[in-house]
Amino acid sequence: MNNIYLEDVNIEGFKSFSEKTNMSFQPGIGVIIGNNGVGKSNILDAIVWAFGENDLGRIRCYEKEELFFAGSKDYPPASKIRVELLLRQGWEKDAPGIQLARERTKNGEDQYWIDKTSYAREAFRQKLDAYNLRHCLETIIRQEQINDVIQLNPWQRFHYIRQILNLESEEETAGCIKDIIGPLFQRYMSYLIPLGEVRLDAISKNGQKGLEIEVNLPGNRLRRAHQLSGGEKSITSLALKLAVFHQLESPFFLLDEVEPSLDYTIHKSMQAFLKDVADSKQLIMITHLRSTIALAALRWRIPSMVSEPAGTAHPL
């Protein structure tokens, strides 16, 4: 399935969405903008929830009740959540689509559909596997998580890559890092630090494999991952995560405000980086940066919940 992308998202009753709301996206880069606190991240939560995510922590909840719109002066609490996704299997207007839907009621009933056919949860997941969509839950990066892979020690970092790619052995993981992830990571970093050099090195100590990251910054300043500044850690971690994600079969990446700690120079370099990533993967991004917004094929603004219903979104 080449060139598959997420075209439509319909959300009703989920978190801050009081009424049915539609957002459409195109191949390439799409952005969601709006003031802090209006529920932009809830859109990404809704997408991964529709793909079957049940880990409340990954969709920023403590209790299941928090998935439901809690009510407001103008809108009653939601008794049902429904999220519908349309994925297009090609960039042509008449390309076939895949319709996914998930619905949950307050009494705990959970239902899944693919192309209007109802499936039990396990059968739904198996059907996603057949469409090569089983990794769509994993390719999301949130602002508060961007540095987590850099903060790991080399042994934990190696295990993270092996686990997320579901590789059978340490030898297979080391080979993937050397031959596939490493070159792609270097290419991404060539945009973000044009005069720097980076290297991924699969190391071994006491029979245990680890992954060391070395960055040679302009001025011959050699740094390991834990020695980088905040902004340097952010761009290094982002490039590494997307190089790893690229090995998964998800057709899109969800990025939730991953740029704020970057300086102005990197913002400009990041445009070339994002264009490269979007050449083969759809990017759906929450952002405040004009440099990123300028790249978007279609932009969605989520208005203030004070002045309009929470479930209203406007294309720009």
How would you characterize the overall build of this protein?
- Helix 5 crosses helix 6 (230-245) and helix 5 packs across helix 7 (264-278).
- The chain has two domains: 1-139 and 251-316, Rossmann fold, CATH 3.40.50; 153-247, P-loop containing nucleotide triphosphate hydrolases (Rossmann fold, 3-Layer(aba) Sandwich).
- The strands form three sheets. The chain has a six-stranded antiparallel beta sheet.
- The protein has helices at residues 40-50, 121-130, 148-151, 154-165, 170-192, 230-245, 264-278, 290-293, and strands at residues 4-12, 21-24, 29-33, 80-89, 97-105, 110-114, 117-119, 140-142, 197-205, 208-217, 221-224, 252-256, 282-286, 298-301, 314-315.
- The chain has 316 residues and is an alpha/beta fold.
- It has eight helices and 15 strands.
- Helix content is 30%, strand content 28%.
- A hairpin with a 3-residue loop joins strand 10 (208-217) and strand 11.
> What is the domain total for the residues?
2
Give the low-confidence spans: 305-310
Query: Helix/strand-derived class?
Result: alpha/beta
- Arithmetic mean of pLDDT: 88
As laid out across the biggest beta sheet, the strand order is 2-1-4-5-6-7
Spatial gap, N to C terminus: 30 Å
- CATH class of the largest domain, named Alpha Beta
Classify the helix fraction into a percent range.
Answer: 25-40%
CATH architecture type of the largest domain: 3-Layer(aba) Sandwich
Count of strand segments: 15
Number of helices: 8
The biggest beta sheet reads: 6 strands, antiparallel
Radius of gyration (CA) equals 20 Å
Give the overall silhouette. Answer: globular
Tell me the fraction of residues in β-strands, as a range: 25-35%
**CATH topology title of the largest domain:** Rossmann fold
* Fourth-level CATH superfamily of the largest domain: P-loop containing nucleotide triphosphate hydrolases
Order of helices and strands: EEEHEEEEHEHHHEEEHEHEHEE
